[in-house]
Specification:
Length: 602
């Protein structure tokens, strides 16, 4: 790296020179970083005068960063300025952090440094964190992507934001979403399109797509998302990161509601809030911070006491592996990756089954989920849209049990019908409970395919998704994998496991028993340790970080699949090597397209 570039980045990232770097310096950093072939964390850290053993500031875990802060190897202000500099240098093409709160973050970092100086110890003290746009943060806009909410600013923080701040987290901004949270892409009229750091022409997922992209790009070690239809699990799979959909009701929803609704305690149906990170250990740490009943409601009488993981060793786990669905095909890339994972699990001593008579009927469960999904979103319909939905539902043939028909019925469902549907749903958790007597976890696809190219065509329901050369209804292909974890309120942890032949990340979701969130996260951590976990996108890392990969001939900004021939421990070590940021020339972001007119939410 050119010495003038190193000096420039170090100067701008140094709070010792100025607690509020001038805009000219921040612009200078962006220009230098995008014009420089390799931006290496260690080089910059040494130039700044930080110890040689400072953790990877781009992709280090919360534990590693917190350890360096506690050991006073760096300050919270230094870590923050480095993170801000990286965002300003790289996010123009990715467009993940769409609401920035850097000035208040600097104030929080100075307060964190003072607390560290007093010897305080908190789980996230001095750690930069991002949030999905719909979470209320006092003084920042909350729009859900709707232009008519552009100027709405809540007066108080969402409850989990308060919990994050109490744990010492530094909120640096909000990440992008689809309008109304209703898509598996992340774009809207207000903030534009978010691109996948692995391939800018592809979706990072939705609706927590900005969270996934931010993590993959190294914009902080933790992001908080939400999930009702795979909105944490799909972006984790598309971007090659970890995500946890908690058990229903485990994390309170106060302050996560469509504007201008007041932040009142309550629990919705299907929807949950959960963490996304680059390491399984960071999921566990952050879940401990945000989980627990709302002190203004259930917390008056209840306390959180999650059971410990069922096992600590991979060989002790009993795992059911499911790679197909009766109503929707799984793409060859995903199915093959799951097959390789199952084989590696067996070789590691885990007890693996490929089928079980105890597994609930996935087709019936999916139909039920589609109905409940749109019923949960129906309060957001305008009176005109509701009347139209009721007309469409009335025109359906009674024997039409397509997934689209079930979603249509859900839009128009009256409370009496919802109660009857919910009564059917209540039988499913009992079936899963019985299955989890024989198995500790179920490995299940997060999506049918790796990250797909941007498709903002309208109408939404007319879109098609290519699965191995055959077109399938977009909504069916995407939503179907969110069931059964969403339908039954089960925990599901998304974990990266492999790469496609073209170099795109592939993940799975680990589904576990209700309220046994620690078990699914523990298994994700064991997969990470044994088989390798997060790896930075090749366009954003130095040559050192791609030594664990076989070079391929995939699309631009990609590399070949994981080098599975290497021993697991060796591969895991190589995948964790220090990775700086490369300033390669990136293709232009796609032109912003129109927004959805359907005022619904995922």
């Amino acid at each position: 790296m050119r010495q003038d570039v190193v000096e420039g980045i170090a100067r701008i990232a140094s709070p010792a020179r100025s607690s509020k770097p001038r805009a000219r310096h921040r612009h200078q950093l962006a220009v230098m970083a995008t014009a420089t072939p390799q931006w290496d964390t260690m080089e910059i850290a040494m130039q700044r005068g930080l110890p040689a053993d400072v953790p990877d500031l781009d992709y280090g875990s919360i534990g590693a960063l917190l350890g360096a802060l506690l050991a006073r190897k760096m300050s919270a202000s230094e870590l923050l300025e480095y993170t801000i500099a990286r965002i300003e240098a790289l996010d123009r093409e990715i467009n993940a952090i769409v609401v920035r709160d850097f000035d208040r973050a600097r104030e929080a970092a100075r307060a964190a440094d003072a607390a560290l100086g007093r010897g305080e110890r908190r789980p996230l003290l001095g750690i930069p964190v991002t949030l999905k746009e719909p979470f209320n943060v006092a003084g920042l806009p909350t729009t859900w992507g709707f232009p008519h909410f552009r100027d709405f600013q809540p007066a108080e923080d969402a409850l989990i934001v308060s919990r994050l701040k109490a744990a010492g987290a530094i909120i640096i901004g909000k990440t992008n979403i689809p309008i109304g949270l209703r898509d598996f892409q992340s774009y809207n009229e207000i903030y534009g399109t978010t691109n996948n750091p692995w391939d800018l022409g592809r979706s990072p997922g939705g609706s927590s797509g900005g969270c996934g992209a931010a993590l993959a790009a190294g914009f902080g070690p933790l992001s908080i998302g939400s999930d009702i239809g795979g909105s944490i699990r799909v972006p984790a799979h598309f971007c090659g990161v970890f995500g946890h959909k908690p058990s229903l009701g485990l994390v309170p929803l106060r302050g996560y509601s469509l504007p201008p609704a007041p932040p009142v305690p309550g629990q919705g149906d299907l929807a949950v809030i959960g963490p996304m990170a680059r390491y399984a250990s960071d999921l566990a740490l952050s879940l401990d911070v945000i989980a627990g009943p709302d002190e203004a409601r259930d917390g008056i009488g209840y306390r959180l006491a999650l059971p410990a993981p069922r096992h600590d060793n991979l060989k002790d786990f009993r795992i059911l592996v499911i790679d197909t669905h009766p109503l929707m095909p799984t793409g060859e890339a995903v199915r093959s990756a799951i097959g390789r994972l199952a084989s590696r699990l067996e070789k590691s001593g885990a007890k693996v089954a490929r089928s079980s008579a105890a597994l609930p009927d996935l087709a019936e469960s999916a139909r039920l989920y589609m109905k409940l999904l749109n019923a949960a979103r129906s309060p957001r319909l305008t009176p005109e849209a509701l009347a139209e939905a009721q007309g469409l539902a009335a025109a359906l043939a009674p024997d039409d049990r397509s997934l689209q028909a079930e979603r249509t019925r859900g839009w128009a469902m009256i409370h009496r019908e919802w109660l009857a549907t919910d009564a059917i749903r209540l039988r499913l958790p009992q079936q899963w409970h019985a299955l989890f007597r024989d198995y500790d976890a179920v490995i299940y696809p997060a999506a049918a395919v790796p990250a797909f190219p941007h498709d903002h065509s309208e109408p939404f329901d007319a879109r098609q998704l290519d699965v191995d050369g055959k077109a399938h209804p977009y909504a069916d292909s995407c939503f179907i994998w969110a069931d059964p974890a969403s339908t039954c309120g089960l925990p599901a942890t998304a974990v990266p496991i492999d790469r496609s032949p073209s170099g795109l990340p592939i993940g799975v979701q680990i589904i576990g028993p209700y309220l046994e969130d620690r078990t699914t996260i523990a298994l994700a951590g064991l997969l990470e340790r044994e088989f390798g976990g997060f790896v930075p996108p090749p366009s954003l890392c130095t040559p050192a970080c791609i030594r664990g990969f076989a070079r391929g001939s995939g699309p631009r900004n990609q590399i070949g699949p994981v080098e599975l021939s290497a021993p697991p421990k060796q591969r895991s070590d190589r995948n964790r090597q220090r990775s700086g940021c490369s300033g390669i020339s990136l293709p232009p972001r796609p032109e912003p397209l129109g927004h959805h007119s359907d005022p619904t939410g995922e």
